Amino acid sequence: MKTFKNIIICTVLTLLFANCKHEAKPEVKTVTTETVSALDQNMRYAKAEFTVEGMTCAIGCAATIEKKIAKMNGVTYAKVDFEKKLAMVEFNESLVNLDLIEKTVTSVADAYKVTDMKTVGHFSVK
Question: How do residues 18-58 score in pLDDT, each as one tens digit?
């Protein structure tokens, strides 16, 4: 019985020492990033501000409108300030126009109305 225990102990110790010698080396991964194409460099971006009437809360109304605008192809920035009823959007002019932004806002709910839409050089509040 003693011999059997000694054999098991020796086997376990041998396995432990053998496994410790096989250290895992860190895996190296190479990640490539996309470069901006010449087409992207030539695109024109515009900024627009407008008032959104009909919002009743910041979490439901303003956040929902902001998410809808942000998901539009060509929109790079969207922010809706519930307190000021102000929406600010930066977009690629070749993909998005002011009419399309207005239709997106009014399609969220019939209660929302867009007024005072204008393009700006800089946002009044960010």
Answer: 554 445 555 555 555 444 444 456 678 999 999 999 999 88
User: What is 18-57 written as a DSSP string?
Assistant: HHHTSPPPPPP-----PPPPHHHHH--EEEEEEEEES---
For the chain, list the domains and their CATH numbers: 44-120 (3.30.70.100)
pLDDT of residue 25: 55
Q: Which two tokens stand for residue 25?
A: 């080396």
| Torsion (CA) 53, 59, 64, 65 in degrees, nearest 10 | 30
Question: Model's pTM, two decimal places?
Answer: 0.64
Give, for 7, the enclosing helix (H) or strand (E): helix 2-20
Here the tokens at position 122 are 């800089």
